[in-house]
Amino acid sequence: MKAGVFLYPWDVVGDPDAAARIADLGVRQVTLASAYHSTRALTPRHPAHRVVTAEHAAVLYSPDPDRWAGRALAPYRQSWTPGDDPYGEAAEALAAAGLEVHSWVVLAHSSRLGAEHPDTSVVNAYGDRYPWAPCIARPAVRDYLVDLAAEAAARPGAHGTELESCGWYGFAHLHAHDKVAGVGLGDAAQYLMSLCFCAVCREGYGEEGVDPEALSAAVRRALEPAWSGGGSPESGRDGIAKLLGPEQADATLAWRGRVARTVQEAAVAAVRAATPPGFQVLLHADPVPYRTGANAGVEPDHVLAVADGVVLPCTGADAVREAVLGPFAGRGGVRAANFGVVTGMGGSPRTLERDAAHAASLGADQLRLYHAGLASGPDLEAVAAALSRLE
Questions:
Q1: Phi, psi of 41 (to 5 degrees)
Q2: Helix (H) or strand (E) segment spanning residue 189
C-alpha cells in the first residue's frame, strides 16, 4: 500500500538531513504544502528553529504576476521561510532523496482574505461574518479559488496534487484562542450555523423555492433552544430536517450541493488544464455532502467522476473508518486513508499497522500520514516500524 506523509516547506528548507530522514520512514510520497492557511507549527528536529508562525494564509512559492495583475483577490506571499520559492527548494530536496512530491493546496480557508475583503466571507443567519470561510457561491471567490488551485497545484516537478477545503467552510474552525465550546452543537446545529446568508446565497435559496428571510428566521428559531438550554444534539440529514423542516432543509442542501459540485468541477478542470496527462488530482473529502471544513462534503459518485480519488479522515475508532470509507466501497478511484501520527494532536502512530490494515479491508488503497514535520521522534519511530511491517 503506497504511503505518503504531509510536510511544510519549512520542515525541509535549511535542514540538510530532512529529506533523507523522511525517506527513511519507508514512505514513497510527500504531500508538500504549496498554499496553506495560517498556523503555528513546531519543527522539533530543525537545526535552526523550533517554531514557525505562518501569520496568514499564503502561497509558498512566487505567484505569477501576470495571472493576478489587477485582481482584487489574489494570493498572499509568505515571509516566514527564506527565499522566494520555499516550496520549490523543499520539493527539489525531497525528489533528490527518491520521494515522489505532490502539492498540497488549501483553498476555501483564509482569515486574511476575509479580514481584508469582508464581502467574500460566509455570513450566518445572525449576520455574523466568518472571515476564515470564503463563500464559494460568490463568483469572484470562485474565480479566485479556481485559479489558485491551478497555479498552486501545478508546481514544477509535482506528480499530483491534493486539494483541501475544496468546498464549503463553515462555523467549525480551529481558531486561535477558540472559545465556542460552551454550548454543545450537534452535527445538524453546526450545519445551521454554517449556512451562508450573503446576497448570492439568499438569491440561491430563492431559486430553490424558499424565501431567504423566512429561512433565516427559521434558522434562528431552530437554534434558540440550543442557546437557552445548553445544546442541540441532533445529527444527520434527519436532524437538519427536524430543526429546519423538510422543505427548507432540502432547499439549503440543494443550493449548497450545487455550488460545491460546481466549484469542485471547476477547480479540478483548471488543474488538469495546467498539468500534463497522468497528473493525479485528489480531494480531501467527507462522504457526507453537507459537511464543511478541510475535508469538504462530497457526493461519492460525483467526486469520483471528477477527480482521481479522495483523501479521507480515518483517525479514531473502527466506526470512523467504516463511516468514511464505506460510501466509496466498490466505486473505483484512489481512496487514501489519512491517519494522524502525532500523539499530542490525537494521532495514534502505535496502532498504525492495525488501523491501516482495517482501512485496507474497507477498500483503502493508499495511506496519508499527518504530519511528519510535527511528529516527535518516538512517533516517527513508530511510523517507520509500522510501515516496515505493512510492506
A1: -130, 135
A2: helix 187-194
Residues in the chain: 391
Judge whether 341 and 25 are in contact, CB under 8 Å: no
Phi, psi (5° rounding) for residue 45? -115, 0
Q: What is the pLDDT of residue 229?
A: 85
pLDDT along the chain (391 residues), means of 10: 97 98 98 98 97 98 98 98 98 98 98 97 98 98 98 98 98 66 79 97 98 98 89 90 97 98 98 98 98 97 98 98 96 96 98 98 98 98 97 70
Cα within 13 Å of Cα(267), Cβ side: 33
Q: What is the rounded CA–CA span in Å between residue 293 and residue 286?
A: 9
Three-class DSSP category at 301: helix
Cell of 327: 460510501
Give the integer Cα–Cα distance in Å for 3 and 390. Answer: 10
Backbone torsions φ then ψ of 11, nearest 5 degrees: -70, -20
Output phi, psi for 338, to 5 deg. Answer: -100, 120
* Residue closest to 361 by CA, chosen among 312, 321, 320: 321
Give the three-state DSSP class for 346: coil
Helix (H) or strand (E) holding 232: strand 231-232
Taking the model in full, what pTM does it have? 0.97
Residue 312: beta bridge partners? 337
